[in-house]
Structure formats: C-alpha cells, structure tokens
Amino acid sequence: MTYRLLGISGALRRASTNTALVRAAGELAGDDVAFTLADIDLPLYNGDVEDEGYPPKVLAFVEAIRAADGVVISTPEYNKNLSGVLKNALDWQSRFSPGPLKGKPVAIMSATAGAAGGQLSQFSLRHCLTPFDCRVLAAPQVHVGDNGREGLFKDGRLVDEKTRGYVAGLMAALRAIS
Ligand SMILES: Cc1cc2nc3c(=O)[nH]c(=O)nc-3n(C[C@H](O)[C@H](O)[C@H](O)COP(=O)(O)O)c2cc1C
Known about the structure:
By secondary structure, the chain is an alpha/beta fold. The protein has one domain (3-176): Flavodoxin domain (Rossmann fold), CATH 3.40.50. 38% of the residues lie in helices and 19% in strands. It has helices at 17-28, 47-52, 56-67, 84-93, 119-129, 161-176; strands spanning 3-9, 33-37, 70-75, 105-111, 135-136, 142-144, 153-154, 157-158. Strands 1, 2, 3, 4, 5 and 6 form a six-stranded parallel sheet that branches. α4 links the parallel β3 and β4. The chain binds flavin mononucleotide. The site of flavin mononucleotide has 15 residues, from α1.
C-alpha cells in the first residue's frame, strides 16, 4: 500500500534548503511513498476572511493534511523562532474540526544559516504543535546548520550523504509510528 507523506516547508523561497530537506525526506522514506509538498503560501489569518469563507488554498492545505499518513515539517529559523508563514499555516488548519493534525504522525526538522541548525526554531515548532494533539517524534533530531556550506545542497537538492542518512533515519522512525 502507498504511504502518503506530506512535506511542509516553513520557507517559501525557491532555493529554500528547508524545502530541499522535506523533498529529501520524500525520496528517503521508502519506495512505496507518494510525496506531496504542501503549499503554505496562504493569506494571513484574518477572522473576517474566515467569516467570508475559507480561501481555497487553506481548504487544500487542510485536505492535504487529512489525506496524509504522515507529515514531515522543516522550519527555518527567523530571529530564533519558527517562520511566520509556518505559524500562519498552523493557525489556519487549527480552525477546522476535527483537527486535521489530531493523532497524525509528525516528524520535524530544521535548516538554518546558523551553526545550531535551528535548535531554537525547532523547539518552538514542537511547542506550537502541542495544541493539535499530533504524534510528534521526539527523536532522532535533525538540525542542519551552516546550510550554505559546500557539498550540502546542490541545485535545490540535499546531496550530503551523511545528512541524507539522518533524514532517512527520521523517516524510518516516522514510518514506525504510522
Ligand atoms: C528574517 C530572517 C531572520 C533570520 N534569523 C536567523 C536566526 O535567528 N538563526 C539562524 O540560524 N538563521 C537566521 N536566518 C538565516 C536563515 O537561517 C537562512 O536564511 C536560511 O537559509 C533560511 O532557510 P531556507 O534556506 O529554507 O530559506 C534568518 C533569515 C531571515 C530572512
């Protein structure tokens, strides 16, 4: 049976290393994986917009979560925290009942320019996921620091074999709880 993996990248730029990380997760999670990259380029949450009707992209995001067997999220670190676009997407999906993430197996990662690899943003993301009662893996932890260094990413792809091994380990753990 196909394993449906949803990747969520907290960065919108085309050359995002976080997007490359979740794409690598899709490649490394197994031959039976159908990988989808979520579009979280959503309007800012606004209760008036919600009252007028959910934007189609928000509905599509929620449906993508519901359809997934597992979710992998990678966040950049913006000023020691997760990105606003990711928090905004999490806020939108929280307006749906039953909660799309409830009980969902979730793996988290981070990639940053700083040497710490987003330890703070990843911790914030873990905290932000708490209300949704999803099953967030505690380990292994994947933090990719100094993300501009030679041999790590090339043409929007994670190429460093050691790091690919860490991502593969995280995906094996995700599949084990799915
Ligand atoms: C607004 C902003 C704030 C940032 N703050 C941090 C930070 O606190 N720690 C850090 O390691 N990198 C920080 N960075 C650098 C990001 O880690 C870097 O841009 C990273 O490549 C973003 O992820 P991406 O490659 O997926 O776009 C910041 C970048 C931006 C644009």
